[in-house]
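Input/output pair, single chain:
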Amino acid sequence: MGTAPADRIPCGVSKPSRQHDNARQSPAYPAPVERLLIELTKLPGIGRRSAERLAFHVLKGDKQAATQLARAIVDVKSAIGHCSVCSNLTEHDPCPICDSDKRDRSKVLVVEQPKDLIAIEQTAMYRGLYHVLLGRISPLDGIGPEHLTAGDLLARIDNPAKNAGGVRVEEVILGMNPTVEGDGTALYLMGELQSRGVNVTRLARGLPSGWSMELASKAVLADAIEGRQQIR
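Output:
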């Protein structure tokens, strides 16, 4: 009777994979580094590889730079909050925009996120107030109106005392992003606002300056046709 080959595995016992052996033999990161990697991967758009690059950048730098980064993160969480009027990020409540008597407090432009507000402010073309929803309605993600600051917006319409300077809101401008979720959020707000007798408008959409017609999507072209203006 011949002898069984040395590498033969008894029936019912699986042979360890080469990948498993390599993983078991590969050195693990020290615990503090691994904790840093885990926390970095929780950030949006940061995968394991990106987290490793960031972690090694911190490790190669001096201790003072790492301390300044950590202090900046702690400070931004302790010093920054949301404006009680518009929900924008602010260091002081109310925020400088709501607190300014040079703004038209009868107009409120509704945006999804603080970064949208900043983009509009950089144009210096709008002098009214804002309301930041801190998101958008997305049924697939389980996000409804109750998860946004939509209720605070409606309260500003119903009760002028909740608006900056106690001024009654006469116009609400819907400035959500032109996406399925953004349009759905705008439709919800439009239904709520129109029943309150306030003038509801939305930001114009169309072909961006410098774009080629062939690069525009059907939705952009449709908005451009719908929002066409008379030439003066």
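The chain has nine helices and six strands. Residues 116 and 199 are 22 Å apart (CA to CA).
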